[in-house]
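Q: Could you fold this chain for me?
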Amino acid sequence: MYIGIDLGTSSVKMILIDNYQKIIASTNSSLSVQSPKDGYYEQNPQEWINSTMECFDSLKLQKPNEFSETISIGISGHMHGATLIDKNGEVIRPCILWNDTRSHEECSEFENQRFDVRSISGNITMPGFTAPKINWIKKFERDNFNKIFKVLLPKDYLRFYLTGEYFSEMSDASGTLWLDIKKRKWSEKLLSCSFLEEKHMPNLVEGNEEAGILKNKLKEKLNFKYNVTVVGGAGDNAAAAAGMGIIEQSQSFISLGTSGVFFTPTQNFLSNTGDAVHSFCHCLPNKWHLMSVMLSASNCLDWICSITNTSISETLINVEKYFSNTNDLLNSSFFLPYLSGERTPHNDPYIRGSFHSMKTTTNSTNLQYAVIEGVSFGILDGINSILKVNHNFEKIFMVGGGSKSKFWIELLASLLNRKLSVCDQSEFGAALGVARLAMHVDDNINNKEDIIKEIKIINEHKPNLEKKDILLKRYKIWKDLYTSNKVLGPNLLS
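A: Sure. Below is the predicted structure, expressed as structure tokens.
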């Protein structure tokens, strides 16, 4: 048996799988996010521990015999979070999260070096990444900076709690801006940009390699029979890719989760920093990937549902009917989905969400449609940015909460003019991905190369050619709206 833990922004998900990768038990536990100021997002790492232990207890209750047979554990986590640890192993301050934009000024300071930062990191410096967060802490919380013994990513802090060991792996470490992406090792040059040294970093492994053994006290508490190995694991999107079997350059996926992501593996290191495309290591050796990220995706839908006092299911029914009326579509309002700033392709921490072309006839359904359309346009922005450096992907799979909506997927298929596939059990993609990585340390499995394979496709959605031209026309107008709003952003937040 193998356990996959997915430490998400809003919850911890956990699954127990057998040798055939069948999910025999699953559970989740909610997490909270604090936002002390506009653009500030933090989490208490103790919540990760509490929720993880709740999930362990739930799996144990559901399948006690199978649970006790666990051999290894893999952990996925939301990326970029700065979890600061002192010399006693204690957390110094709340973790600053991936969608936090407070360190936008420190980004230019980080890159203002006598060497080309981007050529080593493979990425443009953005406030969501870990490095500028540390620069901000040094500037505004000097006492906390001076206490730093280790800087850990969220899943790696959870690993530290489980094993007492300091480890990270290549995919998650890529999002710190301190990793030499080509060489797959910490860069002393990049670390110096944040006034850190390699001693402040965890040891690096690949995602399918051993990275500690579960502490004895936890082994006994959870009633495991064996010494349970914890593998390197993966950042959330690389984990989801492994869960869907997306490890080859012909494959890709779109994630409609809290953030919106387009992800495609590459056989070699590629980069497009001009459009803020992420260039990271994959969670398996000698593989890389390109990724576009928009900071607000399905949470835009959650937001508009709350504002209009409508459930998500009701909203999707309303907008599907709205979309079928060509006249409504042609005259619909527009929405810029930048509730927390934006990454790909704008790298703009100042821009915020906004509606445009609202009329006296505009109603809640129109606004709901505009939100879903605006997020979809943001996904297209990201794909177009990646197409500038990589055309190898053919298959596109869907994952994340938004992938449950047939209407939303068909709208995206029409906009992208590509077939989109929905996979079986996609809601457990990241947890399944790291459970698969955990299987690699089981000596009883002979054919390790067969572990990560494409999961079953349950639905395929084709473009609606009648709506494609209308959507692309609206997309062009939408892009002009960002250009016009860009100059206003800094003044609106001052």
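A (continued): The longest strand covers residues 23-30.
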